[in-house]
Amino acid sequence: MDVAAVQSLLIERINSGVLVVDEECRLVYFNRFMESHSLLSASEVIGKNLFDIFPDAPKRWLQRKIQSVFMLNTPAFSSWEQRQFVFKMRHARPVTTSSEYMAQNITFIPICDKGTTEPDKVGIIVDDVTDVFFYQEKLKDTLTELEHVSRTDGLTKVSNRRYWEERFRVEFSTAQRHDHALSLIMFDLDKFKLINDQYGHQAGDLVLVEAANLVENLLRKGDLLGRYGGEEFGIILPNTNAQGAAELAERIRRQFSLLKMQYEKHTISATMSVGICECDSRFTRFEDMVTRADLALYQSKREGRNQVTIYQA
Protein backbone atom coordinates (compact mmCIF):
# COMPACT_ATOMS: atom_id res chain seq x y z
CA MET A 1 0.00 0.00 0.00
CA ASP A 2 1.48 3.33 -1.03
CA VAL A 3 1.77 6.38 1.22
CA ALA A 4 -1.22 8.16 -0.31
CA ALA A 5 -3.43 5.13 0.29
CA VAL A 6 -2.26 4.88 3.90
CA GLN A 7 -2.97 8.57 4.45
CA SER A 8 -6.41 8.22 2.92
CA LEU A 9 -7.18 5.21 5.11
CA LEU A 10 -6.02 6.99 8.25
CA ILE A 11 -8.13 10.06 7.52
CA GLU A 12 -11.12 7.86 6.79
CA ARG A 13 -10.77 5.82 9.99
CA ILE A 14 -9.53 8.51 12.39
CA ASN A 15 -11.72 9.16 15.44
CA SER A 16 -12.22 12.79 14.44
CA GLY A 17 -14.39 14.43 11.86
CA VAL A 18 -12.64 15.54 8.69
CA LEU A 19 -14.36 17.58 5.99
CA VAL A 20 -12.86 19.63 3.20
CA VAL A 21 -14.41 22.64 1.47
CA ASP A 22 -13.42 24.70 -1.55
CA GLU A 23 -13.46 28.49 -1.82
CA GLU A 24 -17.22 28.42 -2.44
CA CYS A 25 -17.70 26.39 0.73
CA ARG A 26 -18.71 23.33 -1.29
CA LEU A 27 -17.90 20.04 0.37
CA VAL A 28 -15.28 17.96 -1.42
CA TYR A 29 -14.56 15.45 1.35
CA PHE A 30 -16.56 14.01 4.24
CA ASN A 31 -15.02 11.19 6.29
CA ARG A 32 -16.61 8.24 8.06
CA PHE A 33 -16.71 9.96 11.47
CA MET A 34 -18.77 12.79 9.96
CA GLU A 35 -21.08 10.31 8.26
CA SER A 36 -21.62 8.42 11.51
CA HIS A 37 -22.35 11.47 13.67
CA SER A 38 -24.25 13.65 11.20
CA LEU A 39 -26.27 10.67 9.90
CA LEU A 40 -25.48 11.83 6.37
CA SER A 41 -23.54 9.87 3.76
CA ALA A 42 -20.63 11.34 1.82
CA SER A 43 -22.50 10.70 -1.42
CA GLU A 44 -25.36 12.91 -0.17
CA VAL A 45 -23.20 15.90 0.72
CA ILE A 46 -20.23 16.01 -1.68
CA GLY A 47 -20.58 18.99 -4.01
CA LYS A 48 -23.17 20.70 -1.84
CA ASN A 49 -22.74 23.90 0.12
CA LEU A 50 -21.57 23.41 3.69
CA PHE A 51 -24.32 25.65 5.07
CA ASP A 52 -27.04 23.77 3.23
CA ILE A 53 -25.84 20.58 4.89
CA PHE A 54 -25.42 22.22 8.32
CA PRO A 55 -28.05 25.00 8.42
CA ASP A 56 -27.56 25.42 12.19
CA ALA A 57 -23.85 26.22 11.84
CA PRO A 58 -22.84 29.80 12.76
CA LYS A 59 -22.64 30.95 9.13
CA ARG A 60 -21.02 34.39 9.39
CA TRP A 61 -18.49 33.28 11.99
CA LEU A 62 -17.60 30.10 10.08
CA GLN A 63 -17.30 31.93 6.76
CA ARG A 64 -14.87 34.40 8.34
CA LYS A 65 -12.80 31.56 9.78
CA ILE A 66 -12.59 29.74 6.45
CA GLN A 67 -11.81 32.91 4.50
CA SER A 68 -9.05 33.87 6.93
CA VAL A 69 -7.37 30.51 6.32
CA PHE A 70 -7.56 31.04 2.56
CA MET A 71 -6.21 34.59 2.81
CA LEU A 72 -3.47 34.06 5.41
CA ASN A 73 -2.55 30.51 4.44
CA THR A 74 -2.26 29.62 8.13
CA PRO A 75 -4.28 27.27 10.35
CA ALA A 76 -6.98 28.53 12.70
CA PHE A 77 -8.55 27.00 15.79
CA SER A 78 -11.75 27.21 17.79
CA SER A 79 -12.21 25.72 21.25
CA TRP A 80 -15.39 24.32 22.75
CA GLU A 81 -14.92 26.88 25.52
CA GLN A 82 -15.44 29.68 22.98
CA ARG A 83 -18.26 27.91 21.14
CA GLN A 84 -19.51 24.56 22.40
CA PHE A 85 -20.10 23.22 18.90
CA VAL A 86 -19.95 24.36 15.29
CA PHE A 87 -21.62 21.36 13.69
CA LYS A 88 -24.76 20.33 15.53
CA MET A 89 -24.33 16.60 16.09
CA ARG A 90 -25.55 14.53 19.02
CA HIS A 91 -23.00 12.88 21.25
CA ALA A 92 -23.33 9.21 22.11
CA ARG A 93 -22.36 9.41 25.79
CA PRO A 94 -24.30 7.35 28.32
CA VAL A 95 -23.74 10.12 30.87
CA THR A 96 -26.11 13.03 31.21
CA THR A 97 -24.79 16.52 30.52
CA SER A 98 -26.57 19.84 30.21
CA SER A 99 -26.38 19.45 26.43
CA GLU A 100 -27.26 16.55 24.16
CA TYR A 101 -24.86 17.84 21.50
CA MET A 102 -21.22 17.00 20.96
CA ALA A 103 -18.70 19.51 22.30
CA GLN A 104 -16.09 20.20 19.63
CA ASN A 105 -12.64 21.61 19.10
CA ILE A 106 -12.32 22.73 15.48
CA THR A 107 -9.08 23.08 13.52
CA PHE A 108 -8.97 24.76 10.11
CA ILE A 109 -6.04 23.82 7.84
CA PRO A 110 -5.09 25.31 4.46
CA ILE A 111 -4.72 22.70 1.69
CA CYS A 112 -2.64 23.41 -1.41
CA ASP A 113 -2.58 21.37 -4.60
CA LYS A 114 0.74 19.83 -5.53
CA GLY A 115 3.13 22.36 -6.97
CA THR A 116 1.26 25.37 -5.57
CA THR A 117 1.70 27.45 -2.44
CA GLU A 118 -1.74 29.09 -2.37
CA PRO A 119 -4.54 27.08 -0.76
CA ASP A 120 -7.53 26.16 -2.87
CA LYS A 121 -9.25 24.15 -0.14
CA VAL A 122 -9.62 24.22 3.63
CA GLY A 123 -9.64 21.10 5.75
CA ILE A 124 -11.82 21.20 8.86
CA ILE A 125 -11.01 18.77 11.67
CA VAL A 126 -13.72 18.18 14.27
CA ASP A 127 -12.48 16.72 17.56
CA ASP A 128 -15.11 15.32 19.90
CA VAL A 129 -14.29 16.73 23.37
CA THR A 130 -17.63 15.97 25.02
CA ASP A 131 -15.84 14.11 27.83
CA VAL A 132 -13.80 17.22 28.62
CA PHE A 133 -16.97 19.34 28.49
CA PHE A 134 -18.76 16.90 30.80
CA TYR A 135 -15.98 16.78 33.40
CA GLN A 136 -15.58 20.56 33.30
CA GLU A 137 -19.31 20.81 34.00
CA LYS A 138 -18.97 18.40 36.90
CA LEU A 139 -16.00 20.35 38.24
CA LYS A 140 -17.89 23.64 37.97
CA ASP A 141 -20.91 22.15 39.75
CA THR A 142 -18.66 20.72 42.46
CA LEU A 143 -16.91 24.05 43.00
CA THR A 144 -20.27 25.82 43.16
CA GLU A 145 -21.47 23.31 45.74
CA LEU A 146 -18.27 23.65 47.76
CA GLU A 147 -18.61 27.43 47.72
CA HIS A 148 -22.21 27.10 48.92
CA VAL A 149 -21.18 24.69 51.67
CA SER A 150 -18.36 27.00 52.77
CA ARG A 151 -20.90 29.81 53.22
CA THR A 152 -23.66 27.82 54.88
CA ASP A 153 -24.40 26.70 58.41
CA GLY A 154 -24.62 22.92 58.31
CA LEU A 155 -27.68 22.63 60.55
CA THR A 156 -29.94 25.53 59.66
CA LYS A 157 -28.76 26.06 56.05
CA VAL A 158 -28.61 29.84 56.55
CA SER A 159 -25.36 31.79 56.16
CA ASN A 160 -22.61 30.79 58.54
CA ARG A 161 -20.88 33.40 60.68
CA ARG A 162 -17.83 33.77 58.43
CA TYR A 163 -19.84 34.53 55.29
CA TRP A 164 -22.40 36.61 57.20
CA GLU A 165 -19.63 38.81 58.59
CA GLU A 166 -18.07 39.17 55.12
CA ARG A 167 -21.39 40.41 53.76
CA PHE A 168 -21.99 42.64 56.77
CA ARG A 169 -18.58 44.27 56.30
CA VAL A 170 -19.50 45.11 52.69
CA GLU A 171 -22.98 46.40 53.58
CA PHE A 172 -21.60 48.51 56.42
CA SER A 173 -18.97 50.07 54.14
CA THR A 174 -21.60 50.81 51.47
CA ALA A 175 -23.99 52.37 53.97
CA GLN A 176 -21.29 54.61 55.44
CA ARG A 177 -19.92 55.66 52.07
CA HIS A 178 -23.29 56.51 50.52
CA ASP A 179 -25.12 57.54 53.70
CA HIS A 180 -27.69 54.75 53.29
CA ALA A 181 -29.78 53.34 56.11
CA LEU A 182 -28.66 50.00 57.53
CA SER A 183 -30.00 48.10 60.51
CA LEU A 184 -29.04 44.94 62.35
CA ILE A 185 -31.31 42.55 64.21
CA MET A 186 -29.71 40.13 66.65
CA PHE A 187 -31.98 37.53 68.25
CA ASP A 188 -31.41 34.72 70.69
CA LEU A 189 -33.75 31.85 71.60
CA ASP A 190 -34.90 32.13 75.21
CA LYS A 191 -34.07 29.34 77.69
CA PHE A 192 -32.64 27.25 74.89
CA LYS A 193 -30.54 25.15 77.29
CA LEU A 194 -33.75 24.12 79.02
CA ILE A 195 -35.12 22.77 75.71
CA ASN A 196 -31.95 20.73 75.22
CA ASP A 197 -32.03 19.46 78.80
CA GLN A 198 -35.74 18.61 78.74
CA TYR A 199 -36.16 17.14 75.25
CA GLY A 200 -32.61 16.41 74.05
CA HIS A 201 -30.23 18.06 71.61
CA GLN A 202 -32.09 16.80 68.54
CA ALA A 203 -35.14 18.67 69.76
CA GLY A 204 -32.97 21.74 70.21
CA ASP A 205 -31.70 21.35 66.67
CA LEU A 206 -35.29 21.18 65.42
CA VAL A 207 -36.12 24.45 67.19
CA LEU A 208 -33.10 26.16 65.62
CA VAL A 209 -34.07 24.95 62.14
CA GLU A 210 -37.71 26.01 62.58
CA ALA A 211 -36.64 29.45 63.80
CA ALA A 212 -34.32 29.91 60.82
CA ASN A 213 -37.00 28.77 58.35
CA LEU A 214 -39.61 31.09 59.82
CA VAL A 215 -37.28 34.10 59.64
CA GLU A 216 -36.10 33.31 56.10
CA ASN A 217 -39.70 33.32 54.90
CA LEU A 218 -40.26 36.81 56.30
CA LEU A 219 -37.18 38.49 54.80
CA ARG A 220 -36.90 40.54 51.64
CA LYS A 221 -34.51 39.79 48.83
CA GLY A 222 -31.26 41.44 49.87
CA ASP A 223 -31.72 40.87 53.60
CA LEU A 224 -29.36 38.28 55.07
CA LEU A 225 -29.91 35.91 57.96
CA GLY A 226 -26.87 34.25 59.53
CA ARG A 227 -26.24 31.97 62.45
CA TYR A 228 -23.92 33.95 64.69
CA GLY A 229 -23.25 31.18 67.16
CA GLY A 230 -25.20 28.64 69.20
CA GLU A 231 -28.78 29.86 69.42
CA GLU A 232 -27.99 33.45 68.37
CA PHE A 233 -28.73 34.75 64.86
CA GLY A 234 -28.22 38.03 63.06
CA ILE A 235 -30.21 39.70 60.28
CA ILE A 236 -28.60 42.35 58.07
CA LEU A 237 -31.20 44.80 56.73
CA PRO A 238 -29.86 47.16 54.02
CA ASN A 239 -31.81 50.37 53.37
CA THR A 240 -33.77 49.92 56.59
CA ASN A 241 -33.98 52.24 59.59
CA ALA A 242 -34.48 51.16 63.19
CA GLN A 243 -38.26 51.58 63.01
CA GLY A 244 -38.52 49.35 59.94
CA ALA A 245 -36.26 46.78 61.60
CA ALA A 246 -38.40 46.88 64.76
CA GLU A 247 -41.58 46.22 62.78
CA LEU A 248 -39.99 43.19 61.13
CA ALA A 249 -38.49 41.98 64.42
CA GLU A 250 -41.85 42.23 66.18
CA ARG A 251 -43.50 40.22 63.38
CA ILE A 252 -40.79 37.55 63.68
CA ARG A 253 -40.98 37.47 67.48
CA ARG A 254 -44.77 37.18 67.51
CA GLN A 255 -44.97 34.45 64.86
CA PHE A 256 -42.22 32.42 66.49
CA SER A 257 -43.90 32.61 69.91
CA LEU A 258 -47.06 31.12 68.35
CA LEU A 259 -45.20 28.31 66.59
CA LYS A 260 -45.92 24.76 67.77
CA MET A 261 -43.04 22.41 66.94
CA GLN A 262 -43.51 18.66 67.01
CA TYR A 263 -40.68 16.48 68.23
CA GLU A 264 -41.54 12.81 68.70
CA LYS A 265 -44.56 12.94 71.05
CA HIS A 266 -43.77 16.42 72.33
CA THR A 267 -45.13 19.79 71.29
CA ILE A 268 -42.48 22.43 71.86
CA SER A 269 -42.95 26.19 72.03
CA ALA A 270 -40.21 28.76 72.40
CA THR A 271 -39.66 32.50 72.39
CA MET A 272 -36.87 34.82 71.37
CA SER A 273 -35.33 38.02 72.66
CA VAL A 274 -34.35 40.61 70.08
CA GLY A 275 -31.97 43.56 69.92
CA ILE A 276 -31.73 46.14 67.13
CA CYS A 277 -29.08 48.65 66.14
CA GLU A 278 -29.26 51.19 63.32
CA CYS A 279 -26.04 52.26 61.60
CA ASP A 280 -24.60 55.52 62.87
CA SER A 281 -22.01 57.73 61.18
CA ARG A 282 -19.94 57.55 64.37
CA PHE A 283 -19.44 53.80 63.96
CA THR A 284 -16.17 52.79 62.34
CA ARG A 285 -16.66 49.02 62.06
CA PHE A 286 -19.61 46.69 61.55
CA GLU A 287 -18.65 45.09 64.87
CA ASP A 288 -19.79 48.33 66.55
CA MET A 289 -23.33 47.52 65.40
CA VAL A 290 -23.09 43.92 66.60
CA THR A 291 -21.94 45.05 70.05
CA ARG A 292 -24.82 47.52 70.40
CA ALA A 293 -27.46 45.14 69.03
CA ASP A 294 -26.25 42.57 71.58
CA LEU A 295 -26.58 45.15 74.36
CA ALA A 296 -30.17 45.74 73.29
CA LEU A 297 -30.76 41.97 73.14
CA TYR A 298 -29.44 41.55 76.70
CA GLN A 299 -31.79 44.31 77.81
CA SER A 300 -34.69 42.33 76.31
CA LYS A 301 -33.51 39.33 78.35
CA ARG A 302 -33.23 41.34 81.57
CA GLU A 303 -36.68 42.83 81.17
CA GLY A 304 -38.42 39.46 80.88
CA ARG A 305 -37.45 37.97 77.48
CA ASN A 306 -39.72 37.54 74.44
CA GLN A 307 -39.47 41.19 73.44
CA VAL A 308 -37.77 43.60 71.05
CA THR A 309 -35.42 46.39 72.16
CA ILE A 310 -33.86 49.11 69.99
CA TYR A 311 -30.41 50.24 71.10
CA GLN A 312 -30.40 53.80 72.38
CA ALA A 313 -27.07 55.64 72.60
UniProtKB/TrEMBL annotation:
Residues 180-313 form the GGDEF domain. It comes from the Bacteria. SUPFAM superfamilies: Nucleotide cyclase, PYP-like sensor domain (PAS domain). Its cofactor is Mg(2+). This is diguanylate cyclase. Residues 10-73 form the PAS domain. Its EC number is 2.7.7.65. CDD domains: GGDEF, PAS. InterPro entries: Diguanylate_Cyclase (IPR050469), GGDEF_dom (IPR000160), Nucleotide_cyclase (IPR029787), PAS (IPR000014), PAS-like_dom_sf (IPR035965), PAS_fold (IPR013767), Rev_trsase/Diguanyl_cyclase (IPR043128). GO terms for molecular function: diguanylate cyclase activity. Pfam families: GGDEF, PAS. NCBIfam families: GGDEF. Transmembrane segments: none annotated. It catalyses: 2 GTP = 3',3'-c-di-GMP + 2 diphosphate. GO terms for biological process: regulation of DNA-templated transcription.
